[in-house]
Amino acid sequence: MTSALPSITALRDACTTIAEEAAREIMRIYAGDLGARDKADKSPVTDADHAAEAVILAGLRRLTPETVIIAEEEMAAGRVPTLRDGQPFWLVDPLDGTKEFIKRNGEFTVNIALIEDARPILGIVLAPATDTLWRGARGLGADKREGSGAFTPIRTRTPPSEGLTACASRSHAIYSDLDIWFRNNNLTVADRVQAGSSLKFCLIAEGKADIYPRFGPTNEWDTAAAQGVLEAAGGEVVTTDDRPLLYGKPRFSNPHFIARSLAAR
């Protein structure tokens, strides 16, 4: 951590508050007209995406004025900042799971991550519809809070003897591809859980699932915060050649990856 940034504890707590403020904006819009439309790449966007991102950008700029922020809607608008070699940067997805938001199924999240040396060292994931917040930070572990309750530590589990619980995307899963991959890697799947957005990582982080292979396109802001939570909880996110999923890549695009508990290798 550079001397220009607050402590990791201060950053975690401040980002918790920023995510909560963004979630309130999201739920205000969720209660009425979503303002849904398509972006240039034909992916959906709503008024809530933009409102939440404005809250997060303002909060992060107050918190760390000199730190670069890569945010989904800013990128979509062509406002692409230049990363500074060796310097930390923020990755923000103000509303991950926009398709789920439009369907009004509750499976969408606010995501804020701090990247240092190409790895997420802080991740905040908040599900506004259930008021559930997961967070993880290097050296501090991971924890979870539901509603107005206290934060409680979370940790990945050792999979049960009957097999793994595998996560799959609510909107993007192709089960035939997943089944082939599990067979080729001699992994036994006893149960499947579908979930939208970054919630799949959080299920693994809190020991309710074991593995999430993703063989479709994602961007860095889709995964960074949840990876920060999962790694702080004792898990990992690796590429298909078993290397850590890193950040600050060209076009901020991810390769295929596997999120898992260490015991699910």
From TrEMBL:
- Principal location: membrane
Matching Pfam families: Inositol_P
Indicate the transmembrane segments per the record.
none
Give the record's keywords alphabetically: Cell inner membrane, Cell membrane, Hydrolase, Magnesium, Membrane, Metal-binding
Give the binding site residues for Mg(2+) 1.
E72, D93, L95
Q: Where in the cell is it found?
A: Cell inner membrane
Q: Which reaction does it catalyse?
A: adenosine 3',5'-bisphosphate + H2O = AMP + phosphate
CDD domains referenced in this protein's UniProt entry, alphabetically: CysQ
SUPFAM superfamilies the record matches: Carbohydrate phosphatase
**What EC number(s) is this enzyme filed under?**
3.1.3.7
What terms describe the molecular function in GO for this protein? Answer: 3'(2'),5'-bisphosphate nucleotidase activity
Membrane topology type: Peripheral membrane protein
Question: Where does the source fall among the domains of life?
Answer: Bacteria
Statement: the UniProt record of this protein carries the keyword Kinase = no
**UniProt enzyme class:** hydrolase
Q: Which cofactor does this sequence's record say it needs?
A: Mg(2+)
Which residues are involved in binding Mg(2+) 2? Answer: D93, D96, D222
**Sequence positions that bind substrate:** E72, L95, D96, G97, T98, D222
PROSITE patterns reported for this sequence: IMP_1
Job description of the protein: Converts adenosine-3',5'-bisphosphate (PAP) to AMP.
* Homology family: Belongs to the inositol monophosphatase superfamily. CysQ family.
Protein name (database record): 3'(2'),5'-bisphosphate nucleotidase CysQ
The organism of origin for this protein: Reyranella aquatilis
